[in-house]
TrEMBL record:
It comes from Lates calcarifer. Residues 1-18 form the signal peptide. The keyword Ligase does not apply. The chain crosses the membrane at residues 232-255. GO terms for cellular component: plasma membrane. This is Interleukin-10 receptor subunit beta. GO terms for molecular function: cytokine receptor activity. Keywords: Membrane, Receptor, Signal, Transmembrane, Transmembrane helix. Pfam families: Interfer-bind (PF09294), Tissue_fac (PF01108). The keyword Signal applies. PANTHER family: INTERFERON GAMMA RECEPTOR 2, INTERFERON/INTERLEUKIN RECEPTOR.
Amino acid sequence: MPATLQAFILTFSTLCGSTVVSGILSSPTNVRLTSYNMNLVLTWNPPKGAASGLIYTTEYNTSVIPYRVGCVNISTLNCDFTRLNTSMRPAIIEYGKYFGRVRAQLGSESSAWVESNTITMDKDTIIGSPNVSLFSNGATIEVSIKDPVFAVSTLRNVYSFATYNITYWKNSQREKTRHISNIQQNRVVLNDLDPWTEYCIQVQINTERNPKPSKLSGIVCESTTNEEAAPWVAAIVTFVFMAMAVALVVVAVVYRERISNFLCPKDALPQHFKEYLLAHPNSTIYMDMRNSHPPEEIYHQISIIADDRSVEGEVPLEVARTACSKQCDVTVEER
Ligand SMILES: *[C@@H]1O[C@H](CO)[C@@H](O)[C@H](O)[C@H]1NC(C)=O
Ligand SMILES: *[C@@H]1O[C@H](CO)[C@@H](O)[C@H](O)[C@H]1NC(C)=O
Ligand SMILES: *[C@@H]1O[C@H](CO)[C@@H](O)[C@H](O)[C@H]1NC(C)=O
Ligand SMILES: *[C@@H]1O[C@H](CO)[C@@H](O)[C@H](O)[C@H]1NC(C)=O
Ligand SMILES: *[C@@H]1O[C@H](CO)[C@@H](O)[C@H](O)[C@H]1NC(C)=O
């Protein structure tokens, strides 16, 4: 019965039309979910023989929460779920177990979803390197450690028992390394060092929960100086200061006569100079200034008496006041 079969095939293809269409576009490949410093990034390769102009949409879920929208209609080949603009804050939690998936789109066609591996944030994230600074002080070096910045939460919040493993060596003897481990403080003083020697230091973070080794810090080097340097310099400075003070006192005692002569001279001023200074000035301007009196101020009495009559009654008062300000000797009275 070819007709029946034909009808069946037609019906089937109509029913499954959308699935068939969405299957036309091949799917992204090599889909993987990774985490570095507590971010969560889905990365993929384009489908084999992909046309240009493909866009991608991603989603993520946890073992208990169904798929949520991640990046939509993007043309890049990765999506950072910790940088999404979602109303959920944070979009990713530090102990979650996540899956991601991605599909390609071209016009109205979509590929099938491709699921990723799973990532448990605190167990699988790769912890980046700490940032190390050194401060040399005599024959000791202070190591100051800054934790890597996490995309979600902080190192100390996620791993409360994180410790530092500090490795250090003389720059001239790379093979002879020494370690201090299980350090919880982020400031450590190395004090078993030789003076006048350059040491290099590298730090690694250890967490108990995360089995992956964290990234080593960059190697930083610093030289020690002489331990005795600081007290010795201080002693010399004190000695020089005391010697100068003693010398000053001696000079003051030996030359006290000359110094007092210089400060309070015994020689008197010439007589005519003294007279000149004491004489009354007789310039006429000065005399005028001395004899002048402050200008006399003239006052006139003004009384203003309230007028509770109608508005027209106030007009003459206004006039009178104007006149007053000019003639200045008016007494306004109630009419
Ligand atoms: C999340 O996705 C994975 C892989 O696709 C799936 O096995 C799991 O059941 C999904 N979780 C939920 C809650 O749907
Ligand atoms: C998130 O939203 C801000 C403004 O609200 C916008 O500038 C930014 O481009 C958005 N980022 C993404 C990845 O959509
Ligand atoms: C993504 O692109 C599809 C067509 O390719 C369009 O229908 C859809 O509205 C777009 N979504 C967003 C959020 O831009
Ligand atoms: C380390 O810290 C210093 C000072 O705070 C800063 O200048 C430097 O950029 C940091 N390095 C890294 C790799 O974060
Ligand atoms: C510290 O690091 C060094 C070298 O990186 C390693 O040999 C040593 O075993 C580590 N110590 C601990 C306790 O992890």
